[in-house]
Design goal:
Elements lengths: L9 E6 L10 E9 L2 E11 L1 H7 L10 H28 L5 H9 L6 H14 L3 H17 L3 E5 L9 E5 L11 H13 L10 H20 L28 H9 L7 H14 L5 H6 L9 E5 L1 H4 L8 E5 L2 H10 L20 H25 L8 H14 L4 H8 L4 H7 L1 H12 L8
Antiparallel strand pairs: 1-2, 2-3, 4-5, 6-7
Helix pairs in contact: 1-2, 2-3, 4-5, 4-7, 5-7, 9-12, 9-13, 9-14, 14-15, 15-16
Length: about 450
């Protein structure tokens, strides 16, 4: 009788080049093989292949900055720790090895949970300097914690600006495999049913952002083989609710009223009205890109910049957006731009050199609030209502150009959209207006 072949389990770590991300990094994964079966485990570490190769050396070499070298040393230790732990767990159960027991020993019961996945995503975004996106994920995590029994707590003083911070104490974490349609429906009913101190209910738009963030971490968990599918998949999947319908684009004459509104010169209303006009004229630019403009982005004919929102995705093939330097744009820069106009100087006094990513985010959020506050007051005073905001500037730019005969493709390029379909969603209001004009042809003309 032939002797049964017994293969000892083996483990090693790879940089998985099958899933290289747009920034050039790929997930670092633990591979475990046993009796012709292979399992893959995600470690929530992302690196380029060349950086990973350096961590496999005894001493990291290469022409790295001091900061980059320290980062690589930290990642090298993390990877070595995972390799060591994996070998220790395999040794514990090698005589009766099975993957389920190995996974429990290595990761524990808390590995595949929603809170842990969101926390890892927040850390990743902060490392990339994307504080704004990290804040939306933190909001998602905080809301889920309250939903699951957590309590809002406050640190610091009672007044705004006194170091006060909100955090959530408690809350029951949710295994990723339990994030199903039933869970999401309960979460939706709870969230939409909440009432603010003002008496208003919470926004479906915000809930939609939370759902998209949850979907992102679930997709990454699928890529790391932690779960097989998620509740958003397929035609019968959970449908993320849309936002409230509201008018986003102004007509050309309405924009003219804002431009020509009489305001005291060099006051806050004058400044933030002009910032709004700049956003509108500069291709529907958003506040983040306006804040990050430097004089080196401007020449005698145009402004050229890379849109912050898509910069990371397009790192390997950056797409520059070019805006004609019109007389009015030049006037606004001359009026409010910082002096001296050195190539590395920020054009507008929103950001300061040396700010941390979170400080930059806070400054941009404050600038956005200021623009929205003053433009709403001005719009209301001249009879346009109070629903005008920085979003209105972007949508008005697109719709007014479309109305003047500019192609959707050209508008899409100016907006920096990744696909014309995104631009089409901006122009829905234009389509309805045009259809209304066309439908008038169905009625006989009065003699």
């Amino acid at each position: 009788m032939a002797k049964k072949l017994v293969t000892n389990p083996k483990s090693y770590v790879i940089c998985d080049q099958r899933r290289v991300r747009t920034d050039g990094t790929a997930p670092i994964r633990l591979i475990v093989k046993y009796q012709h079966v292979q399992k893959v485990y995600g470690l929530d570490i992302y690196m380029t292949q060349s950086d990973f190769n350096q961590t496999k050396k005894k001493n990291i070499g290469g022409n790295y900055s001091e900061e980059k070298l320290e980062d690589l040393k930290v990642l090298k230790k993390k990877i070595e720790d995972w390799e060591r732990k994996a070998k220790e767990k395999i040794e514990l159960i090698k005589d009766e090895f099975n993957f389920e027991e190995f996974s429990k020993l290595l990761f524990g019961d808390k590995e595949n949970t929603l809170f842990i996945a969101l926390e890892a995503k927040i850390k990743e975004l902060n490392r990339q300097g994307r504080a704004g996106y990290a804040n939306t994920y933190q909001g998602t995590l905080n809301t889920l914690k309250v939903f699951s029994g957590g309590v809002r707590k406050r640190t610091g003083g009672k007044k705004e600006g006194s170091g006060r911070k909100i955090f959530i104490e408690g809350g029951n974490d949710i295994p990723l495999k339990h994030v199903n349609k039933s869970f999401l429906n309960k979460f939706k009913d709870w969230y939409i049913g909440q009432v603010k101190k003002s008496g208003n209910t919470y926004s479906p738009t915000t809930f939609g952002i939370y759902c998209r963030n949850i979907r992102v971490v679930l997709n990454e968990a699928i890529g790391d083989h932690k779960i097989a599918t998620h509740p958003f998949a397929g035609n019968n999947g959970f449908k993320i609710p849309g936002g409230r319908k509201r008018k986003l684009a102004l007509k050309l004459e309405e924009v003219g009223k804002i431009m020509n509104a009489k305001l005291p010169l060099k006051t806050s209303p004058d400044r933030y009205r002009d910032y709004w006009i700049f956003l509108y004229l500069a291709g529907g630019m958003n506040v983040t890109d306006m804040a990050e403009l430097i004089y080196g982005d401007i020449d005698s004919e145009k402004i050229s910049y890379i849109r912050k929102k898509t910069a990371l995705k397009e790192m390997q093939d950056p797409k520059f957006i070019s805006i004609p330097l019109t007389q009015e744009i030049g006037r606004l820069i001359d009026k409010w731009g910082q002096k001296p106009a050195l190539p590395e100087t920020y054009v507008f006094p929103i950001l300061k050199t040396g700010m941390t990513p979170q400080e930059e985010r806070n400054a941009i959020v404050q600038a956005t609030k200021n623009i929205n506050k003053h433009i709403k007051n001005i719009s209301e005073a001249i009879g346009l209502g109070s629903n005008v905001s920085t979003y209105t500037a972007r949508h008005s730019f697109a719709t007014i150009l479309k109305n003047s005969g500019v192609s959707t493709e050209a508008i899409s390029e100016a907006l920096g959209h990744s696909h014309v379909k995104v631009t089409d969603s901006y122009l829905k209001e234009f389509e309805i207006t045009e259809k209304a004009k066309q439908w008038e042809n169905l009625m006989p003309k009065k003699k």
